Amino acid sequence: MITKTIMCPKCKNQVTIEGKPGEKKNITCEKCNTKGVFTFPSDKPIKKADVGPAAIEVNGLTKIYKDLKAVDNLSFNVRKGEIFGLLGPNGAGKSTTIKAILSLIRTNSANIKINGHDIKTDGVEARRSVGYLPERVSFYNNLNPLQTMHFYCELWGVDKSIAKPLIREVGLEDAIKRKVGNFSKGMVQLLGVAQVMIGKPPVYILDEPMGGLDARWVKTIREKIKYLNEQGATILFSSHILSEVENLCDRVAIINKGKLIAEDTVPNLNKYLQIKPRLEISILGLNGKVPEEIRKMKGVESVNAEGDILYVTCESSIRIEVIAKLKDLGYNIKDIITIEPSLEDAFIKLIDKEEGGN
Amino acid sequence: MAIINPKTIYTIAKKEFMDNIRSKWIILISIIFIILTIVSAYVAGGTSDEVFGGMEATVVSLMSIYTLIIPLIAILLGFSTIAGEAETGSLSVVLSYPVKRIEVLIGKFLGLGSVLAVTPMIGFGISGIVIAAVIGAEEGLAFLVFIALAIVLGLIYLSLIIFISALCRTRVRAIAGGVALFFWAMIYGIIIMAIYVGTGGDLTKLMTGQATYPDWLFGSIIFSPGDLNQMAVMRAFDLNQAMGINLEAPDWMSMPFLIVVQMLWIIIPLFLAYYFFKKRDI
Question: A91, A254, B117, B127: which could form a disulfide with B41 (CB 3.0–4.6 Å)?
Answer without folding.
Answer: B127
